[in-house]
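Quick one:
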Amino acid sequence: MDKINKKEEALESLQHLITEREAAQKRRKVDKAGQEEVLVLDWTLTQLHIVATIKEKGRANNTFLSESLKLSKPAITKAVKKLLQHNILAKMHQEENKKEVYYLLTESGEKLALIHNQLHEQARNSYLSILDNFNIAELETIIKFLNAVTENIKQN
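Output:
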């Protein structure tokens, strides 16, 4: 098979991957049997990363979250607002500095962080299982491809 046909086949495989992933995400949103996944799917990726960061750090303010997650302060503020409204986070002020607001996880936030972490671990194990099917040279090609796609996304 020549290079042009192989590139077309690779493009079709990539399109198929994207389509199947979107379909699986829609199925998970509809399927209420897995309550933990549904709970996590109710939140944006930014909100889940905020919860995970606070879980890891213990508490965090807007500046720390913005720098850690490489997001603007307004984006953090918007995401935190919904987390506060749904009792996932609680506000805390330092005794010595009443102006500065820190966020802590509530009991619900702790549960969400745990579920999010478990789902991350499941996904990681699933990907590692798939990657077991490739030799080192093939893995290097996969890494090169994924890095190129990531760079393309960043630039567009």
